[in-house]
Write a structure and sequence with these properties.
alpha/beta, Rossmann fold, 6-stranded parallel beta sheet, 6 helices
């Protein structure tokens, strides 16, 4: 299952249209989307304007990959639930937001493990076909590597 979230304040039809077009070609994959106040019709998605926090968390944590606007809450949730995240930043020049802070966030954080930034919605299908691996958290491989590195420093001293 793919879970998409565009936030609850502003519609993001560019992202939702691209996701709906992809879902039309991939009917075997369930796509659930929380899309805020978007009046568009997207027949290949399971749509929700908003979700209660417990339902949002359950969908986020169950998704094989999450697609989201570049809101910091989505990025933090992906880390919390160890979910791979595809970010599609909103663009001010298209009227999707009041400024380009999401692009700045995506540029700053896009190289982090578990994240992939899609700058052009035409590239969303390729990103979904090969999503980033889930991020490693403090109890995963990165912690073991840190322990090994520190042990080497201590033993080598």
């Amino acid at each position: 299952m793919i879970f998409a979230t565009t936030g609850t304040q502003l519609p993001f039809p560019r992202l939702v249209r691209a996701l709906d077009a992809w879902a039309a070609r991939m009917p075997e994959e369930r796509v659930v989307a929380q899309i805020g106040p978007d009046p568009g019709r997207y027949p290949h998605l399971e749509l929700h304007a908003t979700l209660p926090p417990d339902r949002f968390d359950a969908l986020f944590s169950a998704a094989r990959v999450v697609v989201a606007h570049a809101g910091i809450g989505s990025i933090l949730a992906a880390r919390q639930y160890d979910r791979p995240l595809i970010l599609v930043p909103r663009r001010a020049d298209l009227g999707e937001h009041r400024n380009d802070h999401q692009a700045a966030t995506a540029r700053r954080l896009g190289a982090r493990a578990g994240l992939h930034v899609v700058w052009d919605e035409a590239d969303l299908g390729a990103a979904l076909a090969s999503p980033p691996p889930p991020p490693t958290t403090g109890d995963g491989a990165s912690l073991a590597a840190l322990h090994a590195h520190l042990a080497g420093l201590i033993d080598g001293a």
